[in-house]
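Lecture notes, unit on protein representations.

Consider one protein chain, 157 amino acids long.
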Amino acid sequence: MTNPATFGAGCFWQVEVAFRNVEGVVDAAVGYMGGHVTHPTYADVCRGGTGHVEVCQVTFAPEVVSYEQLLEVFFASHDPTQLNRQGWDIGKQYRSVVFTHDEQQRATALAAKQALDQSGRYRAPVVTAVEPAATFWRAEEYHQQYLVKRGVATCRI
């Protein structure tokens, strides 16, 4: 049995790499979620105005990796205190967000966010949004495993 989990943490290429390397992750696909446009394209999302976030939708085997462990990977893979940006990528499409697929994921994500915020790890508050999952629009094929196809381990500076 597998479950979905969806995360936005800046450029989806980097997020996909972070999750693809986790044991128990069956698949990691990049795409768009949270907007009001059907069948958005990368160009649409980059221009802004669609409301979509660049996301990675993870399919995972909960008997191998827990949702809590995926949240740890998510929070470790970006700066959850930056609002509507990650590094040089600026705009709502790069915001930190956990899209939850059920009430258990929602409760777990909110608890993880609160624990991280109270941990003192960051000087600024954790601004990660926790929202119900919407339609996942798979990104164009050239975006899937983008960094791997180019022999690059990261897109971070």
